Amino acid sequence: MNSSTLTAVAPDNTDRARQLIELGLALDPEARSETLARLIAASLHTGEGTALERFAATGHLDRQQALTELNDLRLPFEREGWIDALGRHVLLTTERRS
Hints:
The protein is mainly alpha-helical. The protein has helices at residues 14-27, 34-44, 51-58, 63-72, 80-92. Helix 1 (14-27) runs antiparallel to helix 2, helix 2 (34-44) crosses helix 5 (80-92) and helix 4 runs antiparallel to helix 5.
């Protein structure tokens, strides 16, 4: 019996996500689509347990905390539009009740 452990490595989809976001924003500059907003949040969040990570994973949105996190992000100039679009989505989306 072989005692080595196989470790699955998830593929890096960073470039694919970037392409999808850019295409999505070209078609929907206001990021009205929740799917697009969640993809942006998934690409921008700073770690587990953050409001943006939770929104990306579950769709649950803590508006105030998400806006605070967006305000604190520092990104290259070419991605500032992502922050703007996600911020508009957070501000303009009606809150869903469970």
